[in-house]
Amino acid sequence: MSAPPQPKSCCTPPRNAGAGSVQAVARASAAQVQALRNDAAPIPGGRALVGTRAPQIPNDGESPVRQVRVAPFRMGRTAVTNAAFKDFVDATGYITEAETFGWSFVFWAQVPKAVGPTQGIVDVEWWRRVDGANWRDINGPETMTKAWHPDHPVVQVSWHDAQAYAAWAGGRLPTETEWEHAARGGLGDVRFPWGDAEPNDTDHTPCNIWQGHFPETNTAQDGYVTTAPATSFAANGYGLYNLVGNVWEWTADPFRIASLKKEVKARVAGMKGYKLSKGGSFLCHKSYCYRYRIAARSGTSPDSATTHQGFRVVWPEDAPRR
Ligand SMILES: [Cu+2]
Description:
Shape: globular
Number of strands: 14
Order of helices and strands: HEEEEHHEEEHHHEEEHEEEE
Bound molecules: copper (II) ion
CATH class: Alpha Beta
């Protein structure tokens, strides 16, 4: 029996080891939690939009647009950085799932020559299984010196790893509704955090995505072949950076698609337990994976990790003072 058709995607492939869970970690000190929370941007509550009336990849479940109410919250201005994740690991001794498994997914162009032949992933052959790849050595053994930067988003983190960090930080992962509401920055049903102006390969590069022919040639017209520093490009209306492009961001939500279509049902049946990610990454291109849009969605298994997968944390807003 052939697998159900998958929409074209740059996305993180499933590891699907059928194992893994969120490891319990101690919470950071009250002062540290407060500091992290104070750095986050206040996001107003009220009427929020999720989804779009103009879906571009309908089989991903981008529509319809729904109106819901959200409570005010605070959201990390950036994806969690390598420096912040290092603070967490130093404080707790946390070991990520990629380290436990002993391997992770690396984009073919970044696999070090010394690694030798690697195994590709069916239908997404640009993802290579590399032994010794993890959040420090993101592209494989001894790649930290060149490839790891404190101010870039942490990558090679699974959903379980993201949950553990968020618990340490005294926060949690955002829901899809919170993520989209924050990404819209007050602009409503727009396609991107800056509005509706389409990025292109030549003279409009407002975020870190692919330019050129995926997956062979990246001209890096936007300045970056892989991740960009977490505060690069302009912030949106709520002061949030790189919601689209740069790295996919895990959310708290399961990956579900409400659809009556047979092909979609068949696809989703193979994705039990998968978690929802938002925002697309430096690998997205309109010709191949048009998911650097607010309403775009992707799902993968909670133990998966890649060089383009990160996350962002939210905290509750203070109760109003009386
Ligand atoms: Cu993509």
